[in-house]
Amino acid sequence: ETVKRELNRADSAVRMLALSGVPGIGKSRMLDEIGIEAATLGWNTIRVSAEPSGASPPLWPIREAVRRVLGLGHNITTQDLGRASNLIGLSFEALPGLAELFNLEGPLASAEFAVRRRECFTAAAQTLVGSSADGRILLAFDDVERFDTSSRKVIQALRHHPASAPILVLVASDERDLAWLDAPILTLEPFGADEIEAAAHR
């Protein structure tokens, strides 16, 4: 019911929900079902999981989400970033941070690490939220227990950005403690013996 309510809202704001539960309980399947429901209601879905090899390179999930929002391939140039950013109405000021995100040469190359990280995180969050100019956006992050710390910080920052349309951020994780998200948590519980038997006879 909580998810349905979020998918039917019309206010221009970023909302965040966490899906918690033990491995294999069905969090990814639930994200699938939510994505299908969202599509029928006109939401655009961007779904990203952890890096397939398990290496967890810094900001990989965020790079992947931004790449998909911008509609870019894997061999990205600064020119590609400029054109794609312009199409979604992103501020020119975000380009240095995006170049940093994709490890491209840019005006931040000689800046201190803390400055580069700050601009990178801000540009990534602006891009993900700014994509809502074309309609409602569902940002689904799966296997977040395998995300690096920097990617988690960008996800945290999303909720504080203004939006021009409804945005729902779903975070699925095996972690027991999701307090770092500061978001409502939907915990998936395993079926008991009676529930399994009842389901088998439906």
Please give a handful of descriptors for the protein shown:
5 strands; globular; 202 residues; five-stranded parallel beta sheet; 8 helices
Describe the fold and architecture.
By secondary structure, the chain is α/β, with parallel strands linked by helices. The protein has 8 helices and 5 strands. The chain has a 5-stranded parallel sheet with strand order 2-3-4-1-5, sandwiched between helices. Helix 7 links the parallel strand 3 (137-141) and strand 4. Helix 5 packs across helix 6 and helix 6 (113-130) packs across helix 7. The chain is globular and about 50 Å long. The mean pLDDT is 88.
SSE blueprint and pairings:
Blueprint: H1 2-7, E1 14-20, H2 27-40, E2 44-48, H3 60-70, H4 78-87, H5 95-101, H6 113-130, E3 137-141, H7 149-158, E4 167-173, E5 185-187, H8 193-200
Parallel strand pairs: 1-4, 1-5, 2-3, 3-4
Helix pairs in contact: 5-6, 6-7
Q: Helix and strand string, N-terminal first?
A: HEHEHHHHEHEEH
Radius of gyration: 18 Å
Main sheet attributes: strand count, strand direction, barrel closure? 5 strands, parallel
Strand content: 5-15%
| Average predicted confidence as pLDDT | 88
Q: Could you say which structural class the secondary elements and strand pairing correspond to?
A: alpha/beta
**How are strands sequenced across the largest beta sheet?**
2-3-4-1-5
Distance between the termini: 22 Å
